[in-house]
């Protein structure tokens, strides 16, 4: 396939498997709790473990891809995801649930880093913002699909059947990638001697990674603890998963709309700040209101608006020769935050005795984003302007 939009469709579907697998634990959390006698803190830890390997693999991920090739690296990543998922199916031990989650997460991290680079190869200088916005929406689309299908499968056939459904989707992703993806005929050449980041640029990239991580913590609380919140309020697990999935389906559209709005108004940071504040307000309302569906719809329409503007922050300070190491640092910070966030949220929910506390934690995370953005802008202002 040589059509770049067709290539983007292949990459979208393959990355969707990562989101589907990430959400598989939260989608059947009440069933896991019953099967393994797991608390909300245990579930939160298992959710967060999926992204833990990113702390170690984000920086070397690009070098691994350079040595093995893009397609081979992503195919290997999918294979790791499949092996980890099958390990979770094969054993009723909680220790194997943790091990399988870490193995799958290692593959997912490599997949995420490399596929972002693959999209850039095909769209650099050609609708890159639109392509990235579409690519990023594979995450909420995959999570929504997981919420819509896995609770029903798990309720009828058990947790193992839900896990096998995840393995089947990942298995289908491997031949799709092998057959459907080709590298562009002329790929941008990487500089032979990457430059080092100056101190202010390094700090700016770290804060940008913090903003992306903290924002995603707020977003993650909705689909990680939202279903459990509704089950606590008397909903069935299937109805709760379907209701929360509305957020993800609408977020898939609002993310693209946010990128377009940021470009059209030429005020991406205003979109970022207003989006985070409105999202935080709705998060605060959800556990305290009976109007669940209207609030869920509003969250879906608002929640992903800041995504594009946030992802543009590293590009503002990174030169072509520093993008590889800069994005490695950006994703390392992101994965550290995403590793800790769900575990902390689960512990808070256990202490408070309700999943509502996890959503309040997400609200606080969203409110921190404008504060971090202020710090980012202060540091960027100290950098010497390019000629």
UniProtKB/TrEMBL annotation:
Major facilitator superfamily (MFS) profile domain location: 7-387
GO MF terms here are: transmembrane transporter activity
**Record's keyword annotation contains Transmembrane:** yes
What domain of life does the native source organism fall in? Bacteria
Subcellular locations according to the entry: Cell membrane
Q: Does the keyword Heme apply?
A: no
InterPro entries per the record? Answer: MFS, MFS_dom, MFS_Efflux_Transporters, MFS_trans_sf
Q: Where would you find the membrane-spanning parts of this chain?
A: 43-60, 72-90, 96-116, 128-150, 162-181, 202-225, 237-262, 269-286, 292-313, 325-349, 355-376
Sorted UniProt keywords? Cell membrane, Membrane, Transmembrane, Transmembrane helix
Provide the membrane topology annotation: Multi-pass membrane protein
Q: A cellular component term (GO) from this record?
A: plasma membrane
Name used for this protein in its record? Arabinose ABC transporter permease
Source organism of this protein record: Bradyrhizobium icense
What does the organism's lineage look like at the top? Bacteria, Pseudomonadati, Pseudomonadota, Alphaproteobacteria, Hyphomicrobiales
């Amino acid at each position: 396939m040589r059509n770049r939009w067709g290539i983007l469709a292949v990459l979208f579907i393959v990355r969707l498997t990562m989101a589907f697998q990430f959400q598989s634990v939260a989608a059947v959390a009440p069933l896991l709790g019953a099967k393994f006698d797991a608390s909300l803190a245990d579930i939160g830890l298992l959710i967060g473990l999926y992204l833990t390997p990113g702390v170690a693999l984000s920086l070397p991920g690009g070098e691994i891809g350079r040595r093995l090739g893009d397609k081979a690296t992503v195919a290997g990543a999918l294979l790791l995801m499949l092996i980890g998922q099958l390990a979770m199916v094969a054993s009723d031990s909680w220790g194997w649930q943790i091990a399988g989650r870490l193995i799958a997460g290692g593959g997912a991290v490599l997949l995420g880093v490399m596929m972002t680079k693959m999209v850039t190869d095909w769209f650099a200088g050609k609708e890159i913002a639109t392509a990235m916005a579409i690519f990023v929406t594979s995450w909420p689309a995959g999570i929504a699909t997981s919420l819509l299908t896995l609770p029903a499968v798990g309720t009828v056939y058990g947790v193992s059947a839900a896990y096998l459904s995840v393995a089947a989707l990942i298995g289908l992703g491997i031949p799709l990638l092998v057959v459907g993806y080709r590298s562009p005929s002329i790929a941008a050449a990487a500089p032979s001697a990457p430059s080092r980041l100056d101190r202010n640029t390094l700090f700016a990239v770290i804060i940008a990674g913090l903003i992306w991580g903290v924002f995603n913590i707020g977003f993650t609380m909705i689909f990680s603890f939202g279903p459990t919140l509704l089950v606590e309020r008397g909903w069935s697990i299937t109805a709760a998963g379907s209701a929360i999935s509305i957020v993800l389906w609408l977020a898939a559209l609002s993310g693209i709309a946010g990128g377009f709005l940021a470009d059209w108004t030429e005020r991406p940071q205003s979109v970022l700040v207003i989006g985070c504040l409105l999202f935080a307000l709705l998060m605060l309302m959800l556990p305290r209101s009976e109007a669940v569906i209207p609030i869920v719809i509003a969250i879906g329409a608002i929640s992903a608006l800041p995504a594009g503007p946030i992802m543009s922050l590293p590009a503002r300070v990174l030169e072509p020769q520093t993008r590889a190491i800069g994005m490695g640092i950006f994703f390392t910070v992101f994965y550290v935050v995403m590793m800790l966030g769900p575990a902390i949220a689960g512990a808070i929910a256990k202490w408070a005795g309700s999943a509502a506390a996890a959503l309040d934690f997400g609200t606080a995370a969203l409110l921190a984003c404008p504060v971090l953005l202020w710090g980012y802008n202060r540091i960027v202002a100290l950098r010497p302007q390019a000629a």
